[in-house]
Design goal:
It contains twelve helices and twelve strands. By secondary structure, it is α/β, with parallel strands linked by helices. The protein folds into two domains: 113 residues, NAD(P)-binding Rossmann-like Domain (Rossmann fold); 188 residues, 3-Layer(aba) Sandwich (Rossmann fold).
Amino acid sequence: MKFVFIPPQNKATRDWAARLMTDCRDMSVVLTETNEEAKTAIVDADAAFGTVAPEVLAQAQKLRWLQAPHAAPAAGYYYPALISHPVVVTNFREIYNDHISAHIMMYVLNFARGMHRYFHQQIRHEWIPPKEKTGSADETGVLALPEATMLIVGVGGVGAETARIASAFGMRVIGIDARRVSAPPGVALLGRPEELDDLLPQADFVVLTIPHTPATGGLFDAARFARMKKGAYFINIGRGKTTHLDALTAALRDGRLAGAGLDVFETEPLPKDHPLWSMPGVFITPHTSGIGPHLNERRYEVILENARHLIDGTPLRNIVDKKSWY
């Protein structure tokens, strides 16, 4: 069998190709440097890694498996010819679960303990303790997590791990997912996508882990933010194009939302003059929630496992519904 690495190449893909030739001797490996080389190499290839341009895919005569280079590739990866092609596409989902769930909880704990206030006070060299009395988070600067509800929109691997951790803090976790038929540990209630509007008013934290797909583009708009509980927090670590930034900015500005933890944006990089940068209740990270140790090794493990599955004729790991993009 033949496996082709589609350009561009980097240190990681070169390393994977070399290791695959040793670890999977029943598969020849070709590292292409240009699209012209890829067109020639893919003619008799059984498998490929990377982003395959339409003109390259058109040359493929035997291609059965394509490994996408991301967990959720950007819009345009799944173009009509690829969707209709018989090739099975797999992705890198599940390898980021621990890193992204920790990033989500970083936002949650910062909001719950008032760090979105203290951060700006520190910048201004201000010592302003909160009022020491029982009451709302506005009075004390503290939100009691065992009294809070988290709504996770997209209970895949990341969402399920986040639910497990959040429930350990005593939070009530509810979720929305298009594929799961039963709630994973930590999720008290699992709903379908059509139930989103009914569940939004219950949540103190709304967490988006969903990819950008034909069904989720612009999912969170002014109407959705209006349905959220007043004073709730919005967290997005999925894909920026699921959320209208103008609507989010307006919901923060008018006090509908108390804050937002944002790792992804409708436009990236976020423009330097965007009002979100200076809003006091907003934490911004530059699309870094998935960063952490061991990722390249995890990626290679997926590639190697699926190469062996292809040779053995057994089901591949992380198969994508190409029409849905995930």
